Amino acid sequence: MKNGEEGAEEKKEVVSLESLSKKMDDFAKARDWEKYHSPRNLLLAMVGEVGELSEIFQWKGEVARGLPDWEEEEKVHLGEELSDVLLYLVRLSDACGVDLGKAALRKLELNAIKYPVKQTDYCVGEHSSGNVKLKEEN
Which Gene Ontology molecular function entries are recorded, alphabetically (predicted)? Predict the structure, then answer.
């Protein structure tokens, strides 16, 4: 620690979608990869990375939030695969002309309308066509 910073928490760098987009664009341009970064190719690459992410969880059963039983090496690997998915998603959104941040905020607003707080006793099953009631209302 420097200059009496003992006990001070480490400052976390704030990372925006814009900064990731710029870094990814610079990275691709420097390697002349832009010609390969069509929406289709980026999507397929991202799906491949989602597969790699899935492999990490395969055969583990349910895991606790925060992954308390995982080794640090496993968490680092998870972070790498999550990052691969995120970076391809950001690159894909750019290739499609979609402002991912704005689209995500809009989607949250739509979800808040679709699933108002009063309906928190309901769960929408991924394979059901409607709400499944979990408990009786009073």
Answer: dCTP diphosphatase activity; magnesium ion binding
**d(C-alpha 10, C-alpha 74), whole Å:** 23
Give the pTM.
Answer: 0.76
In Å, the largest CA–CA distance within the chain is: 63
d(CA 100, CA 21): 10
Cβ contact 82:50 at 8 Å:
no
131 DSSP β-pair partners: 124
Report yes or no: 111 and 101 within 8 Å, Cβ to Cβ. no
Rounded to whole angstroms, the Cα distance separating 71 from 74 reads: 5
CA distance 45 to 90: 12
Q: Are 119 and 90 contacting, i.e. CB atoms less than 8 angstroms apart?
A: no
DSSP 36-71: G--HHHHHHHHHHHHHHHHHHHTT--S--TT-TTS-
